[in-house]
């Protein structure tokens, strides 16, 4: 989710919680246990700012918190000092406002039905509406011709179109096992909606025709774990919130699949999310875990950086890691 802001207002008998993201504003009046959970999470921030405040407003993009007491705000160094408290409030609000799994939904993220349900119920909290900035920056800095490029768990295909625009590839293939994802990716690629939504150079015209560098685009409905058995091999693969979507016990298998689908010398460039929360998806991972997994699967680590240009809601939590298949 590209979170812009969230607000909390204490009222008689309930709490009003509101989040604003790229898709607009949604709010809910919370009562009982839900209200108590959010208030408990917000208490340290409220006490730090103004114990008498009956509302808090967090502007994630501008990095400022305002309390409902005239003149009380935290920005700059004060915001940084309170960042852990701010995160707790935002997390508690999001946990209450984003719909949770229904009892009859498939429980495992290895099942495409799990993701179909998420797509069908609009719980695409990961959606940025554009390619992840750190990956777009890496691709812009490495415009070398690539014969075949792959984007795993491509969702709406923002990274596919970004790649096809930026590098001259024979083909850029986006793979996702949820039919809703592939349908959405094809629709965006066919009608240029993404360009109209302000994604700039990542926009696309008819399938493949929007690829300025001449790359053909293909979206395929397939399970990433079946790709090693398919005949195609790639010299570049991009990873953005697919690794964090798979069950942690399948991570070594994922690394082996990526090794199998890349040609020797091929690169896997991934944005790995270390949000530090328990459970998932998204499942958190550390830089060390990523390095160990992929080195064990036959990769060399060619570059690691804490991404300086993550979206605000993931700031300081993403590792941009470049892996070379040996
Ligand atoms: C969190 S979403 C991210 C989508 C996209 N990468 C983005 O960041 O906008 C994860 C996507 O990976 C897909 N996915 C999860 N496991 C997969 C698998 N084993 N094979 C193919 N797709 C998978 C899901 O269907 C979902 O669309």
Query: Looking at the structure, what is the overall shape?
Result: elongated
SSE arrangement, N to C: EEEHEEEHHHHEHEHHEEHEHEE
Ligand inventory? S-adenosylmethionine
Strand content: 25-35%
Instruction: Tell me the name of the CATH class of the largest domain.
Output: Alpha Beta
**Overall mean pLDDT:** 87
- Structural class of the helix and strand makeup? alpha/beta
Count of distinct structural domains: 2
* Helical run tally: 10
Q: What is the fold-level CATH name, i.e. the topology of the largest domain?
A: Rossmann fold
Protein model, in words:
- About 6% of the residues have low confidence.
- A hairpin with a 4-residue loop joins strand 4 and strand 5.
- Helix 1 packs antiparallel against helix 3 and helix 5 packs parallel to helix 6.
- The protein has 10 helices and 13 strands.
- It is elongated.
- The protein has 326 residues and is α/β, with parallel strands linked by helices.
- It binds S-adenosylmethionine.
- The site of S-adenosylmethionine has 20 residues, from strand 8.
